[in-house]
Amino acid sequence: MNSSDWQPWGGGEVEMGGQQGDSTPSGRHFARPGADDPQDFRAESSPVAVLLAAAVRARDVEGKREARAVAAFLEAREQGAHPARTRRRDDWRPRGVRRARRSLRATLAALLAGLTLGGVAVAAIGVSSGGDGEGQGRAGPSSSAPERPGSTPPDSTGSSAPAPGASPSGPSDRPSQAQDTEAHCRAFEKVEGRGKAMDATAWQRLIDAAGGESRVRAYCAERLGVSGGGSERQKKDKERDTAGASSDPSTAARTTPRPGQPRKK
Amino acid sequence: MSQRGEPRRVQAYDGELGAAVARAQEGDEAAFAVAYRIVQPGLLGYLRGLVGNDAEDVASDAWLEIARDLGRFKGDGAGFRGWTATIARHRALDHLRRQKVRPRATGLESDVLDLPGAHSTYDQAMESLSTEHALELVAQLPRDQAEAVLLRVVVGLDGPSAARVLGKRPGAVRTAAHRGLKRLARLLGAEGVTDEGPRTLGESR
Hints:
The structure holds 2 protein chains of 2 kinds. Chain A has a domain at 104-255. Chain A starts with 36 loop residues before the first helix and ends in a 10-residue tail after the last helix. By secondary structure, chain A is mostly helical. In chain A, 55% of the residues lie in helices and 0% in strands. Residues 1-41, 130-172 and 228-265 of chain A have low confidence and may be disordered. In chain B, helix 3 packs across helix 5 and helix 8 crosses helix 9 (159-166). Chain B has 2 domains: 1-105, Rna Polymerase Sigma Factor, Chain: A (Orthogonal Bundle); 141-205, Arc Repressor Mutant, subunit A, CATH 1.10.10. The chains are: A mainly alpha, B mainly alpha.
């Protein structure tokens, strides 16, 4: 413990007898709160802790104040305050007991939340794929395209324009996972602050995607913002595609996949 | 400062404390007094770190609430420590809010240092001096570290309970306590060697 060899946190070396080397300073152990407690760090037995406890813990407890506390206790007893309802913050039973008692309620709540989130997600997917379906009809260089009345005969420059990138991925311009995320984000906006929804798997996934519970809001704001931009972009794509449809041959688009072998007509 | 092994005894009392609380919940005031005597030293120590010299008053307020709400409490001895620490903490934060003082463990600097009064015996002076000294060191920690250390070491809570009192994740509290103790060790160690080491440490935040 000399002052010369200290290093910034995260260096990981501990000077107090080395008992604490196992406790990582990352602070990101959500999952296993109690499990590693015995060796988490021996707060009680490090020399500093012993010194500190000895110095700071009160040695003489004042009788006068104790008497006042007991008087308050008696008063409460007389008023029948003691069989009061246990609030959540009053329940300090060991984890297992608490969990067992709550489990039924929690399970139901989680199930309900899961259904809600799932429903919203499905609904959202439905909505957005509906939109995409529309786009597909118009922009897709699919087999139906040639039959469109607006499509003009092939033109030699056409082969370069709509391009492979635009065609196959055009319809679903975002992957479905992003849609899921957005759906969750919308659901998050709805259920935010109503506790139990956070148990749902979908919620966990959202947290994972956001990189932390506290960042969900920002993440979602960004996502939904992006998706707004995305649909604008989509609109532009569509415009371009429809514009292109009049001049660009969809057949040309169909030939592009194999540029090396110009197709004969 | 003497090594008394107090924290060990903190844990050893948990069984007795749990029994006392259970009897108190059935209306036994003597048992309530027993619980008070077991819990109060650590609670007061924690409050000293938070509000300095007002700790006794804040503790009294907390005990009024504890006495009133005892029937609501569910849990064992260790749980009772956590429950009472939460109540005490809320009282302390209320107190600090009323004072419009930033809730940092620095109630000490101004007035605590001249505490050993004329009536003190030499022993008492030495003891209270060491208490102040320890609190002074704790006051140099960032608040989250100071609180984590006090809850773990002085109140005697386990990691998850301390986290619950502070409303934080166990990992964060574990880290805070760990860093706090490490820093205290450095402060204590540096004191013997040189004066320049610890000066800057308290200002990292």
